[in-house]
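Continuing the series of single-chain predictions for the mutant panel. This is the parent chain; the variants come on the following pages.
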Amino acid sequence: MPGFHIEHFGCRAARADGEAVSGSLRVAGLCERKPSVADVVVVNTCSVTAEADRAARAFIRRAHRLNPEARIVVTGCLAQRAPEELAGMDGVAAVVGNSHMALAPGIILGLAESAPIAFPALVSPALISVESLLSGGARAPIWADDRFAHSFPEREQIAPGAQTRPNLKIQEGCGNRCTFCVIPQTRGSSRSLSAAAVLRQVEGFVAAGGKELVFSGINLGRWGREFSTTAQERSRVEVSGLPPLRQENVARMGHGGILEDSAPRTLAGLVRQIFARTALARLRLSSIEPMDWDAELIGLMAEFGGGRLARHAHLPLQSGSDAVLRRMHRRYRPWHYAEKVAALNRAAGPELTLGADVMVGFPGETDREFEETLEMVRALPFGYLHLFPFSPRPATMAWALHAEHPVPAEAVEERMAALRALASEKSKAHRGRFVGGALEAITLRAPAEMKARARTAALTENFLPVEVKGSLAANRLVRLRVNGLNAEGALEAEAERPELVQQGVGATSI
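Parent structure:
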């Protein structure tokens, strides 16, 4: 059978897109292979920084050198932002932007089987014309437009497999328009997977033996905000051959018996419905913007945190300077952020692991503004930080700001070093607090080196990496006794019981 390889770049949501495509290809009969022997190599790109662009292009060139006969398909954010550039690269057979990710499996399958690809109808004037590009003979076909009508790939049932804790992308796009961010260009405005579709996936995941599921999205906290009765009326599917009343009932009824009129319209409402209707043992929420941690969502952390809801919160910070946040067009001030952190700590308790993204060198960032960021990071109980230097992105407001007020490279390097040292100090202190105590965790697939030492990889409920003494199967909920930290900073632990038996976790009717 034809074989494929998918190389992932970027965030959890991008990874979820790639996993959905991969699942569809496996169901269609394709097998996964190394890029050196694959018939089709899929490069699922990121474009959040210039370095992400460079890494994706470098992999495309390397894949073509390694396997000149492979047909390379480029997907993801760079494919949406710069499709014509990618279509001209050697070895590239197709470019599929995020706007057409749902079509990617069919396009890849056609290339793998050397079959003609049925080009979609060109109904939008913004669609980059496949025919015009093909007419020159030097470029690959492109699927990309600014409507994003085909951006949610249909995915097979999610299940624990190579990914013990798989990502389920339930939200796409962002409308925040931060001055540094290219995401509105590459993924469009916010859109949500229906509650019925989410519930169906969660139920199937539990039935397949899944223990922990991760909800991801580009702006996850905005899930469901665009839902309204009017929007639902417009999006109802016509059911031919049924009486009018029956048509209406079928159109309103989602998977799992949810009436769309009563379906949740907030992330907190969705989480509560999942806990009421399924036996999912643990749900983890990925990155959520500070102001989207509303009272209802924080209340769920107080009610379910440490049990069915992981005590882990990632709130993008970007800067601790009010002036910088204003130039970024972020929708909170430093004191707002601190208030959300305090509320989450009250709700989840001291076991909460708090993470954040912090950007260094935003245009015009002064020494004093950077010191304000350092002071805020020192003051808040972060367990980890994702640090990155500012990268100017074309067609963003910050592109022009950078041209006028760039921060010198040597200053950026010094500031990154200072934040790295502080982040390492805070991470070690946070993890060290749990030595001598007990934590609940899920076992993961251990790398070969760890297996050789009769150790098991695990992740605690509050998002701490663990190396467990002994060999345990993946996808098991265990209670661990933490003995110390290893040289890499991971917890070292032993299992108190072979299996953590959850009490009171089960489906109830509503």
